[in-house]
Amino acid sequence: MGKVNWQMRELPQEKRDLMKRMIREVSEHENSQFDKMEQFMQHGTTTVRKHCINVAHVALFLTTKFGIEVDEEAMIRGCLLHDYFLYDWHDFKIEYLIHGWTHPGLSMRNAIRDFDIGETEQDVIRHHMFPMTPFLPKTREGWAIVFADKLCAGGETVGDRVNARREVKMEAMKYTRPHLLKRGKATIDGQMTKEEGKNADRIRRHGLGITHTGHGVLRRHRVAV
Ligand SMILES: [Fe+2]
Ligand SMILES: [Fe+2]
Q1: Nearest Cα to 64, choosing from 10, 125, 137, 17?
Q2: Which among 19, 73, 191, 192 counts the fewest CB atoms within 10 Å?
Q3: Number of CB atoms found within 10 A of residue 144's CB
Q4: Helices marked H in the chain — which ranges?
Q5: What is the pLDDT of residues 10-45, one digit of tens each?
Q6: What are the Cα distances from residue 157, in Å, to 29, 127, 136, 164?
Q7: What's the 202 CA to ligand 1 centre distance in angstroms?
Q8: Cα 144 to ligand 1 centroid, rounded to whole Å
Q9: Are 223 and 207 in contact (CB under 8 A)?
């Protein structure tokens, strides 16, 4: 298999449309708290809402790529709701120490309370942490999320560290190779990089900031707005 391109545009148009429709459906459902998940961080600078969308996208990508027959609507709905909890598990609270084991059950109960979900969605949500929670998924959709969730968690965490390192490098270039900046090969002042823009937007909307403290180590902090 050649280089795998995970971009959304690699999916056929009808699957991209399906993703958009499902996100809209879950987000606009009358009891939905899906959009509130944007206020909480999951991995690095990725919010819980964005993480759930990433997982749905990767699950759809994997099942499409490998020709696995699944109920795509149920799988996407389950993926979008697989981390349907409304708290920041990075905060220090005794109960959050076991978040990894408790949140699949909690997310499923929340999803049943707010949405009309079937058994496939419940399997996707309930068993997505396998093997951390030792209960095997019963459906193909449930297996798809087991892999998609791990891939996204890794990508979101590593990707953030790579971005943070890049920013540190850019900052250093200001002093060491300013001619490259002048020639427009890099930007520091003036226009914000994409990541800085996203961070500024998050601070403005939710008072959540991320700074890197060096060597790719990220620190979350609340910002008074
Ligand atoms: Fe999870
Ligand atoms: Fe997850």
Answers
A1: 10
A2: 191
A3: 28
A4: 13-28, 48-65, 72-80, 99-114, 119-126, 140-176, 178-182, 194-206
A5: 789 999 999 999 999 999 999 999 999 998 888 877
A6: 30, 22, 25, 11
A7: 22
A8: 14
A9: yes
- b or e along 41-59 (b: 16 or more beta carbons within 10 Å of the residue's beta carbon)? bbbbbbbbbbbbbbbbbbb
Packed helices 119-126 and 140-176: angle between N→C axes, nearest 10 degrees: 50
* Dist. CA 128 → ligand 1 center (Å): 7
Q: How far is Cα 219 from Cα 213, in angstroms, rounded to an integer? A: 7
Q: What is the pTM of this model?
A: 0.74
Q: Which of 152, 120, 135 is nearest to 56 (CA)?
A: 152
Residue 44 and residue 158: Cα distance in Å, rounded?
A: 8
- Any idea where the domains of the chain sit in the sequence? 8-154, 162-222
**Cα-to-centroid distance, 208 and ligand 1 (Å):** 21
Pick the CATH number of 8-154 from 2.40.30, 1.10.540, 1.10.287, 1.10.3210: 1.10.3210
- For residue range 150-165, what is the model confidence (pLDDT) as tens digits? 999 988 888 766 766 6
